[in-house]
Amino acid sequence: MNQPRSAWLYQRVARLIETQIANGTLRHGDRAPSVRSLARSAGVSIATVNQAYLQLERRGLLRARPRSGYFVAAPARPALAPPSSRPLRNRRPRSVAAEVIDTTLASLRQSDVLALNSAVSVFTGRLNGRLNRLTRQVLRDEPDLPNRLSVPPGDEGLRRAVAARLALAGAPTDPASVVITAGAMEAIVLSLTVLCRAGDTVLVESPTYFGVLQAVEQLRLKVVEVANRPDVGIDVAAVERAVAGGDVAAAVLMPNFNNPTGALTSDADKRALMEILEIAGVPVIEDDLYGDLHLGPERPRPLRAFGGGPVVTCGSVSKSIALGYRIGWAVSPEYADDIARAKFCTSVACPTLQQRVLSRFFESGGYDRYLRQLREELAVDRRRYREAVAEHFPSGTRVSDPAGGVVLWVELPEQVDALALFQQALDERIGIAPGLMFSAKGDYRNYVRLTMGAGWSPRVERALGRLGALARAAAAR
């Protein structure tokens, strides 16, 4: 298949710089040609040069310095090991998770706190202008829309778009199986409400997103945890042992870029999981929130692509398009009617205007082109953040190398108490997420979750340096 002309052009520019590095014309520490000058000399656009430089930075050949340009990077540092699979447990039970979560959420509302604890990407803000233009167009075409209610299952055009995206990911879907929700979290909560009753046991990963743990607690459900290993994902053997007794009502799984480990479960393990859960009669609630933010060549397939028993696929636009829209979906041929009914009984409907705007956004095209650029920049920032952790954090620190998503899972030396580090960092206006938030048992006391979606700036670089200094001081005590 012939490549688009734009792809050929930026690859040609990238090869030009790569050749100069290889033959010694450009050496470590040298400043690469400015974007404007290279665009003139190569006869290409500034956007093409920017794309070429991003690719070279992703490969570790160049490194950007804010307001200074691009420079030839130093040879790569030795790779950091991934976090271990067996966390240190708390020596004493701690009833602090709710307090920490409340403090973390409060910090996200403070403009003077650098949100390295936020699992979102700042790059989505680039779509604001386009979404605002579409909003004006929708209101011109349908001026009565603010007073029209889009009852469950939601806007038909948006449901078709969600079904089409799932089909492209390898899971053909009928739009009638799609229910629009107020974000992925509501989709998960509604699914738990439909599948479980108070006192039932739910299988979850460890670590897992703290919102899932809060929802399980709020619904008065019990939890059985199975490991999610940063290097390979969900522990299939542990799942098989956990469901063998027959008392698990549902499983909440995040095989595509677990939050917080960033782990991707392989296709072979996904297939095995679906076979095990089907035999055990356990329906699955899949959180596929980060599937579109893969940093490899292909989007990983959701669980429903592997057959087996019932799966409710939950997703949202929060991480890839519009955080503030709070629009998500739950997809299930088996339970769509029940979920729609539960949605109506809890929050009646989702905002009509946002659904219609998103429907037009998907129809207008360009989403995949935007995602390619977003993934390029996230891949570059993954390297930047990991290099900063390697440079500034204490000896013995381990960090994940996620194949997608926007978070890094950092294991600190045993003597570092991540809760104390969280409080110290917050005093210096730096937000991090301590590991105990991600376990029902308060495990991971020497782990933290960091974003790699906050962009790269002198402020971020300084904050990671300061955070590393605090961690080194704690490790030395």
Quick description:
The chain is of the alpha/beta class and 477 residues long. Helix content is 42%, strand content 14%.
Helices, strands, pairings?
Elements lengths: L4 H18 L12 H8 L3 H13 L3 E4 L3 E4 L24 H12 L5 E2 L12 H14 L14 H13 L9 E4 L1 H13 L5 E6 L3 H9 L3 E8 L3 E2 L1 H8 L4 E6 L13 H14 L3 E4 L23 E6 L11 E4 L4 H12 L4 H13 L2 H26 L5 E2 L7 E5 L6 H10 L2 E2 L1 E2 L12 E5 L6 H19 L1
Parallel strand pairs: 3-14, 5-6, 5-8, 8-9, 9-10
Antiparallel strand pairs: 1-2, 4-11, 6-7, 10-11, 12-13, 13-16, 15-16
Helix pairs in contact: 1-3, 2-3, 3-13, 5-12, 6-12, 7-8, 7-11, 9-10, 13-15
* N→C terminal distance: 59 Å
Q: Tally the helices: what do you get?
A: 15
Q: In angstroms, what is the radius of gyration?
A: 23 Å
Structural class: alpha/beta
Q: What does the overall shape look like?
A: globular
Helix content: 40-55%
Strand content: 5-15%
Mean pLDDT: 91
Number of strands: 16
- Main β-sheet: number of strands, strand sense, barrel status? 8 strands, mixed
Q: What strand order characterises the main sheet? A: 4-11-10-9-8-5-6-7
Extract low-pLDDT stretches: 90-96
Question: What are its keywords?
Answer:
477 residues, alpha/beta, 8-stranded mixed beta sheet, 4-stranded antiparallel beta sheet
Description:
The protein has 15 helices and 16 strands. The strands form four sheets. The protein has an eight-stranded mixed beta sheet, sandwiched between helices. The chain has helices spanning 5-22, 35-42, 46-58, 97-108, 128-141, 156-168, 183-195, 210-218, 236-243, 267-280, 336-347, 352-364, 367-392, 418-427, 458-476; strands at residues 62-65, 69-72, 114-115, 178-181, 201-206, 222-229, 233-234, 248-253, 284-287, 311-316, 328-331, 398-399, 407-411, 430-431, 433-434, 447-451. The chain is an alpha/beta fold and 477 residues long. Residues 90-96 have low confidence and may be disordered. The longest helix has 26 residues, at 367-392. It is globular and about 65 Å long.
